[in-house]
Predict the structure.
Amino acid sequence: EWVDFVVFFNRIIDRFELTKEQTVDFERKLPDKPILMEIDPDKLTQVIDNVISNALKYSPEGGKVTFRIKEQEDQIIVSITDQGVGIPKGNVNKIFGRFYRVDKARSRKLGGTGLGLAIAKEMVEAHDGHIWARSIEGKGTTIFFSLPYEKYEDEGDDWN
Ligand code: ATP
Ligand code: MG
């Protein structure tokens, strides 16, 4: 299905902004022009839902979550950054494994199964993209994912 990825992403963020119970601010650093892409919206909604709910789950009161889309030559890079507890060095890549959870006690309290990011990885890879994380313990986490993107420039000027 063809969508404007910026509109698609904004809608999901809006839904969280309306329903979140935490006092966490959202900041959007998104392009102001459309990014037309063919995606499976249901699958990517699952990906983004999980990443945002993780960001909220691990954010402190008064924290900020930042949403970005960077447009490159042949891909876009979407990122979601929180100011939460972070993930210990050495464990950052494990979070995409099935049932992996950093802190068993903390995770039990916060609920969930530890499958969210493993499913997200499958969904992103089904779009020929990649998903990865950068995190500093005590400072916060950014989850990135890339999606292939063919940029069609407006070539109208060539005829003048
Ligand atoms: P589920 O998504 O199935 O409800 P979950 O959120 O625990 O459960 P994942 O989304 O796969 O599972 O995340 C795996 C683990 O990675 C989490 O349990 C948590 O320890 C760690 N993690 C994920 N996102 C963050 C984040 N933004 N900040 C800190 N830790 C995180
Ligand atoms: Mg999760």
